[in-house]
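Re: export button greyed out
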Amino acid sequence: MGYFNLPSGVQDLLPEECYNLNLIKNKLEKKFSLAGCIPVSSAAIEYYDTFACIKNSIAQERMFKMTDRDGKLLVLRPDMTLAAARIAATRLTDTDVKLSYVSDVWNYSTSESVSQREFLQAGVECFGVSSPLSDAMTIAFAIECVKETGVQDFIIDIGHVGFFKGLLSESSLTEEEAEEIRRSVNAKDSLSVQMILSRSKEKKEAANAIMALPTLFGGEEVFARAEELTKNEEALSALHHLKQVYAILKSFSLENYISIDLGTVKSLAYYSGVVFTGYVKDFGTDILSGGRYDSLADEFGKSIPAVGFAMGLKRCLMVLERQGKLVKVPDPDLIILSEPGAESVAYGVYRAFTAQGKIADFFTGSVEEGKKYVADKKSEVYLATKEGLKSL
Amino acid sequence: MITIALAKGRLASESAELFEKCGVDASVVFEDTRKLVLTSADGKYSFFLVKPSDVPTYVEYGIADIGIVGKDTLLEQDKDLYEMLDLKFEACKLCLAGFPQRKSQLTHPHLRVATKYVNTAKRLFASRGEEIEIIKLNGSIELAPVTGLADMIFDIVQTGSTLKANGLVVLEEIFNVSARLVVNKVSLKTKADVLLPLIEKMRKEIEE
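Workaround output, generated via the alternate export path:
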């Protein structure tokens, strides 16, 4: 019986789940194309080196690995943003482009409570422009996309890794200590931040600013609090940039969807500017994650600024289920049964109705079986006879 | 409603006392009951009493908005959550312990260490560049060196009386651990209106 099981971390999507997931997917694809995004699809199998030998490498334990016939290592695509950056840098001539995708990514998770390993993501990557407006527009579009799926009660938490980077540049921390601090700041663990700082004997001002990071979240008032903490130019310019982004979002009347957190410091190797995360009330994990990564395409030979985000579609589906918004797979609009010899009549009817965009189910068994088949369905039922069409 | 995961046992009562001081009706935690979910009389808070090692899991998944658990458990699990306050109570130390004469063998190439903190021990010795054999035990860790199962143990030491009674001593103190307030990453943002004032009250309460 073991042969019929699936490996851990992956699932089949059964009809109702798949139907609802497709609804979300279709809504988003339409939304993407209405905003001028061009869809791309990348290969699911890529070379290991593409993801492992770059500066912003993906940890090797996170990747599903296989060996090609020539002995080279292959991986199942672990990240769509890197794949999109690779496509933009190596395959496209016009780099002022917005790409969108709905694709699976795989994570060879090693966590003890085996979670998901196959993620369906829908995302957008906007290449070419690096301005507060492009950041704000991407965040505004992310808000539209979450709304489009039907998910309610969500917020987008925004931050800027430049503020943290600026504060760090004042300090004399080693790369390792900096990464340790980043993790602790990200976990709002002030105590560990304090411990690492006291170990490395930082100057008081830099230390105080870094120690305040875990508390720098909330509404607009965060900006003023952050400004008082530092005179570092890089940090202040990051703050200024984020303020501009916020002001634009406010002018779009989207401030109710926004919270600010300067202590959200996602991977520094990857992100270079604004970062944002989508949270839904009473749902423990994020459903959307994004940010600016201006140096990511550098790895693939071209320097293109970019900002983008991806949504986890299965997570959206779980939220919709909790919020009671899933729909039932509808019965066909009509079901056509056919008497022997009247098949061509039935086929004609089926063609005519589907051409009108109706769901027409041509039942190919006997009339007797067909009557049982339609019994629990709300569809209109037609019987094709040699004399013509009868409504049942 | 705010949901709170508490580690069963003494930590739960100390946590509940702290909540009471901060204006949270946590009296249900003291009631002798077999119920798994305890809701306060005003309906504003709901408590789960779970195994200490399960507290971070409930909080990471957002089933509980906040939780109180020992730092030792957090070190071992490396979960994705906010660790916001050191509550200071249940203070103890994660130590390497063994027979006094074993002390000279700290750098022995095939040291065997018994512990229930497997991941923390792995990280500790890896950071020192020492290769060791870790033996996972679930309780009565002190028995391991006594019976010869391991050369030393890596465990929490509160008073040291169990060590002493078995002729063992602390060889090295590694981490100070105590109870921590952990918060789900989403709840902090989506329930900020209730959680932030509560966390602030708790911060003040421990500082006093």
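Chain B touches chain A at residues 57, 60-63, 77, 80-84, 86, 183-192, 196 (CB under 8 Å). The button fix ships in the next patch.
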